[in-house]
């Protein structure tokens, strides 16, 4: 496994490699308990946890904090699988079971936020892998991270599929009293059979909607990323309607549809899953994604339009002034008179 001179992104476009992100002390811990059976934790001491988003990114934020690499949620479509290759780790099963833990993340973040060079920019979490995956139950890094951000009144947002975020509800309420806090929960569909195979390590969609409901009851507005909408498996009109209706019933402040995208690394893993579970769709996917990582623009626009119409029908209004900040996808180039598709990298 490579640790020295490791950067968050591969060196490209003439970019100079950053200093090594991890110190030399790496502890590998193999856990053999029912909750973590088969999972190996690589405990590392990070030198930096504030990561600048590459300038070419579509993301609407500039800084992220990722206390974990790899994710036991095991979503077969996860774009972040490719990043495990930078560590010489397997991007399939290895991504699901070999979890890198930055055990000193809270203390490093507190030091970086206190630096005179830090300008208090918005910090996004959960945009690479989920910061509330099961490992967080063992390592409890997020309470320290949230506390550090609160101490500096630094705005932040969290994107998650994990119900463990409710453990930190009091901390989030306290943070929202002094800074902008945005929470988004990812719920792409309600189909139980599809969920069990495509997102096997995540809480059920209904439990994630419980998180939306609980946050709202405590005064923290929560948006839902309806992500991903999976072509031919979760995109029928009745499926979209059922999901939007459930999102509205949970009290979400917004719903944003995101069509499945298949970047290198994730694409191979997803297509292998598709061949096993839905072989009749393989050729259709090869045609749909023949042009690259994203579904055709016409398809994205259709899904976006349908979901937005349903959202209006179910009374999920636009963002209000003063509402909690939420992670929003960056818009594509505008097309007059057309509902624009949106994309966000997910865990």
Attribute tags:
globular, disordered C terminus, seven-stranded mixed beta sheet, alpha/beta, 12 helices, disordered N terminus, single chain, 11 strands, four-stranded mixed beta sheet, 347 residues
Q: In terms of per-residue confidence, which ranges show pLDDT below 50 for 5 or more consecutive residues?
A: 3-22, 318-347
The assigned structural class equals: alpha/beta
State the helix count: 12
Q: What is the C-alpha radius of gyration, as a whole number of Å?
A: 19 Å
Describe this protein's structure.
This protein is α/β, with parallel strands linked by helices and 347 residues long. It is built from twelve helices and eleven strands. It has helices at residues 81-84, 93-97, 105-113, 135-139, 142-151, 169-176, 192-198, 205-217, 237-249, 266-277, 282-288, 297-313; strands at residues 22-30, 40-46, 50-52, 63-65, 68-69, 98-102, 123-125, 156-160, 181-186, 222-229, 255-259. β10 (222-229), α9 and β11 (255-259) form a beta-alpha-beta unit. α3 runs parallel beside α5 and α9 crosses α12 (297-313). The longest helix has 17 residues, at 297-313. It starts with 21 loop residues before the first strand and ends in a 34-residue tail after the last helix.
């Amino acid at each position: 496994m490579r640790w020295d001179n490791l950067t968050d992104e591969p060196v490209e476009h003439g970019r100079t490699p950053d200093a090594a992100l991890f110190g030399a002390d790496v502890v590998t811990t193999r856990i053999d308990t029912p909750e973590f059976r088969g999972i190996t934790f690589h405990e590392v001491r990070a030198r930096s946890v504030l990561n600048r988003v590459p300038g070419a990114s579509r993301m609407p934020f500039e800084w992220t904090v990722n206390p974990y690499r790899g994710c036991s949620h095991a979503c077969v479509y996860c774009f972040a699988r490719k990043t495990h290759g930078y560590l010489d780790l397997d991007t399939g099963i290895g991504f699901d079971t070999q979890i890198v833990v930055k055990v000193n993340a809270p203390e490093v973040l507190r030091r970086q936020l206190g630096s005179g060079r830090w300008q208090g920019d918005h910090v996004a979490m959960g945009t690479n892998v989920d910061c509330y995956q099961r490992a967080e139950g063992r390592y409890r890094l997020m309470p320290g991270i949230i506390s550090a951000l609160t101490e500096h009144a630094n705005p932040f947002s969290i994107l998650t599929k994990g119900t463990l975020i409710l453990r930190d509800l009091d901390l989030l309420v306290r943070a929202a009293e002094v800074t902008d806090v945005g929470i988004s929960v990812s719920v792409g569909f309600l189909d139980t059979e599809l969920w069990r195979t495509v997102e096997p390590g995540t809480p059920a969609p209904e439990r994630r909607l419980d998180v939306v409901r609980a946050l709202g009851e405590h005064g923290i507005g929560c948006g839902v990323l309806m992500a991903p909408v999976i072509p031919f498996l979760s995109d029928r009109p009745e499926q979209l309607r059922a999901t939007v209706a459930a999102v509205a019933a949970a009290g979400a402040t917004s719903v944003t549809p995101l069509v499945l995208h298949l970047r290198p690394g994730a694409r191979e893993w997803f297509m292998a899953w598709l061949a096993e579970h839905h072989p009749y769709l393989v050729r259709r996917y090869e045609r749909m994604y023949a042009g690259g990582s994203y579904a055709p623009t016409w398809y994205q626009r259709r899904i976006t339009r349908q979901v937005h119409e349903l959202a209006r029908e179910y009374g999920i209004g636009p963002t209000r002034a003063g509402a909690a900040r939420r992670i929003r996808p960056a818009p594509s180039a505008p097309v007059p008179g057309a509902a624009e598709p949106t994309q966000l990298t997910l865990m």
